[in-house]
Amino acid sequence: MKGIMNSFFVDRHGTSTVPSWRTLTVAVVCLVGGIVGGYSLGLQSGQGEQAYHEDVKHLLKAHERNLEVSQRRANIHLDALALRLGAMQSELYRLEALGAELAKAGDLNLDEFNFSETPPRGGLSQTPVESTLGYAELAAEIDRLSSSLDDRAHKLTLMRGMILDGRVLEELTPQGKPVKKGWISSSYGYRTDPFTGKKSFHHGIDIAGKRDSDVLAVASGVVTEAGRKSGYGYLVEITHADGLVTRYGHNSKIFVETGDFVTKGDVIGQMGSTGRSTGPHVHFEIARNGKTINPLEYLPMN
User: CATH homologous superfamily of domain 183-298?
Assistant: First the structure.
């Protein structure tokens, strides 16, 4: 540009001259072109910076939208955990109610199995405005509730075992009379033998009653003998827990076989006078570890 301007006034011999119209036109065009080009470059630079700012704004808005979506999803998960926590609390209350009823029904020590105490809970602030619980709060509450559930489950397991063992022991322990109606016609121990008139030892008690009336098992157990036996007539022998055995003699009929499992109260035969007997009655014996004991001392007969 500087060279062109110089050509306006100095020729090649160093003398001044007036530029021709062609030269002047070229100079003007170059000048205008330079101005327009500079303006265009400046305009393009400004537009690029504005476009960059717009892109940044769009990216920030997109990031904000993503954050909002992530937060909503996180809140949904937290709310789901809170609902699960509520369900666990309800289950704990149900177990506590069940445990309290079982403790009463099983006549267990209520101090040992105390289901009336409130589960260990707390740590959540109460505000008038509902808000989603945080992860730390939910985790702490779930840990406390899990500990309570473990404690209740352990107590219920022990309680179930105690009640079951108690019921099984009760079922396997002789209790009650082997007949619904009857009266004791001969006691346990030494007596005058009804056939010889001599003193002899009676290993059971005799319960007289109506012929062919039901004879009942006084405890659950396994039938270890069922059939005729010398002196007993038709005999049923049942083995129970703790080395206990019961025997029912002089039946007119028996309804069980060796190896059968009978439960307490089952009809095992009918009262008769088979064997060494003077009339319809049940000869009832209880033995422990092979030695007979007095049924009247072992269980109430009245």
Answer: Glucose Permease (Domain IIA) (2.70.70.10)
Please work out, in degrees rounded to the nearest 5, the angle formed at the alpha carbon of residue 145 by the alpha carbons of 108 and 161.
25
Q: Give 173-230 pLDDT, tens digit per residue.
A: 888 899 999 999 999 999 888 788 888 899 999 999 999 999 999 999 899 999 999 9
Q: Are strands 244-254 and 261-262 parallel, antiparallel or unpaired?
A: unpaired
**Residue 39: φ, ψ to 5°:** -65, -40
Round the CA-based radius of gyration of the chain to a whole number and report it: 53
| Cβ-based neighbour number of residue 141 at 10 Å | 20
Over the stretch 161-179, which tens digit does the pLDDT of each residue have?
656 566 666 777 888 899 9
CATH 2.70.70.10 location in the chain: 183-298
SS3 category, 37 = helix
Tokens matching residue 199 = 């003193």
| Helix orientation angle between 135-172 and 21-105, rounded to the nearest 10 degrees | 20
Buried b (16+ CB within 10 A) or exposed e, 77-110: ebeebbeebeebbeebeebbeebeebbeebebee
Q: How far apart are CA 119 and CA 148, in angstroms?
A: 6
DSSP for 93-134 reads: HHHHHHHHHHHHHTT--TTTS---SPPS---PPP-SS--PPP
Q: What's the angle, vertex CA 210, arms to CA 198 and CA 239, rounded to 5?
A: 70
Which tokens go with 262? 């009978």
137-156 residue pLDDT tens: 777 777 777 777 777 676 66
Nearest to 4 by CA among 22, 34, 21, 26: 26
